[in-house]
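=== RUN LOG ===
request id: a7f3
mode: sequence -> structure
chains: 1
length: 446
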Amino acid sequence: MIPLTKDVANLVGEWADHVDNRSLLHEKYALPKVWGKGNDDKCDDAGRWNVLRIVTGGQKLLERDAARLTHEAQGRNVGDNMRARKMRNAEIAKRMAAFASADERLVNVCNENGRRLLNDLSKSYDEYVIILEATLGSRMMINVAGGVVQNAGIALDRCFGQPFIPGSAVKGITRVQALWEIHEAKNDQKLYLLKLAMLLFGYGKLDLNNNGDFGWAGGSDEVKRIAQEIGSIELKGCASFLPAYPTSKPTLVVDMINPHYPEYYQGVRPTATDDESPIPNYFPAVEAGSSFGFAALINRDVLPFCITADAILDQLKKWLEGAVTHKGVGAKTAAGYGWFALGRTGSVGSESNSTTTTVIIHGSLSESLITKWKGRLDSTTNLRAVVSEMIGLNDDADLLRVFNEIIPEGERRNLQRNSPYWQSFTSGETGAEGLKILSRLGINLT
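=== RESULT ===
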């Protein structure tokens, strides 16, 4: 059984089989790899099975594992010890698959609450709040502290067990977006953005130094002068960032990284060689297509420098939109995780009406692709993902506009068949789609 006290086991079941809340299953009722006495009791699949219990369709995957292990245990050449181990693990997988299914009505309530929160904020705070919805264009990893290998966590709401993005994460990515824009800005625009950011996010003593965040972005001397004008070397930010909750039904999946040189990474070996055994590490992720509602509001009336709430909210919205579409949310954004397109897509069910209401994305698909990919295709790293999304544009005029906006000008001028850029565009898993895009645009590689 999962390690539980007797009274808790009586309440939730020996394998937490009465629990239907993903958050409880993942954070409280996990099976450790080593449990019991002796090395024979170690269960290497425990980590993966803990993840499978919280993902969409996880029960079927656990039942499939149980059936596979049972089949393997009946093999002719399987020794007695191995047969007993496989049968024991098959029974564990079967017991872990017996958890209670989540009530679909609660999932709908959670999504409705997310949408209602945005609506209520808009009514209550009016000109002091910005709200936006965005849809994942790729998988997202949230709350993975210390990296995937060390901590396969995910932020799940305690009441509903649904994924959400903590407000601290929303503030963090927005602040990073602001710092980069300040760093790249010039003259008066740089000074204006710097003042807005210092007021919005607040600052501490270390931020004012050359090696501090604001010191790096706007220059230490300028930052210290602004702080002196404000009248404080430390300031609490005037913006509050709320958690982003799902506004359409999210799908959780099990993902994996597979380090091929574990002993080299751990410092056991001085060099990486191909005779090591990869050790897969499984973690939960939010699947692409899930929509989330973001909100931030101004928490005070009087602002220095005669800056109005409208001005500061307008810039805050630009930074937040840029953060979710250009910087990404969560871990491994450089590998393609956590990227959003503005707006909500999909269908939203109504409890009082069995019909389905289609939700229109804020802005066209072409606009979303331009926002998401412009400036990110200088290398071939993201070409597979962008080709898969571009092929979904039905109108050739829209396709041409997106192509001209997101493909670097230098590459559009160098349409050589042997170019590494166009080889990547027209080869691999999405090569056929890439060729079809070029054909629709009347482009011939020479």
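=== NOTES ===
The mean pLDDT is 82.
The chain has three domains: 6-96, 103-363, 364-440.
=== END ===
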